[in-house]
Amino acid sequence: MSITQTFYDNLAPQYDKLFLDWGATTHEQAQILQKLFADHGFDSTAHILDCACGIGTQAIGLASLGYKVTASDISNVEIAEAKIRSEKAHVEIDFKNADFRDLSSTFADRFNIVICMDNALPHMLSSEDLERAIKSIAGQIKENGIFVGSIRDYDALLKDKPPYSPPYIHKTEKGQRVSFQTWEWNGDHYKLIQYIIDDDGPVSVSKFECEYRATRREELTNLFILYGCKNVKWLFPEETGFYQPIIIAQK
């Protein structure tokens, strides 16, 4: 089992604690994505593949807006959690366990839109693995379809290589929850440790470890062009309202 798989298997039961209101976030992010889709000529008849769906943060929100959504992830534990949450939200999503480096072995169909949000692509720890992922993802996009993904702003972060991310402090009914990350850099790689401190009752501290490769925007742009996308652009949080830079690549 890879370090990424282990990270998300362990984090899945507490992933929603990273948000003040996870349910509200699913709807807010779906509305942001819906606008981006509409700007590129797609309405709710589009068939979407969320190829790194996690516990369903984007997939469930989009399904609630009427899109036909298929969702996959490398973590079976996250898929199981996402299924429970989709049932509670009364939406139908076709969930699959799949590695986005090899989507064609799971999906025979291609999609109008493929999404990969929340900094999933930088889990590819080598340029070869990233290229394999982009080739796989681009291969599942229909002609004139689009890819929409988001990553951290590594072009900026690599200048200073900060040792941590600012904490999120969320008030709860009986106390507060604090979540933050420490980052230990080694070249363009960094070890991430996610902490969740919860004092809603007896104080509990959870710790989850993973590794990322800081991926520059130019590398992703060039790979999507290499694998058949004719138009690639980047949008930033001040333009979209989303918390990370977003890449849109049209097949």
Tell me the Rg in angstroms. 18 Å
CATH architecture of the largest domain: 3-Layer(aba) Sandwich
Overall body shape: globular
List unreliable stretches of 5+ residues: none
* Total count of strands: 11
Instruction: Tell me the CATH superfamily of the largest domain.
Output: Vaccinia Virus protein VP39
Mean of all residue-level pLDDT scores: 97
DSSP strand content:
25-35%
- Give the SSE order as H and E letters: HHEHEHEEHEHEEEEHEHE
Structural class, by secondary structure, is alpha/beta
Name of the top-level CATH class of the largest domain: Alpha Beta
Number of helices: 8
CATH fold topology of the largest domain: Rossmann fold
Please tell me the total number of domains.
2
Percent of residues in helices comes to 25-40%
Distance between the termini: 33 Å
Strand arrangement within the widest β-sheet reads 3-2-1-4-5-11-10
What can be said about the biggest beta sheet? 7 strands, mixed
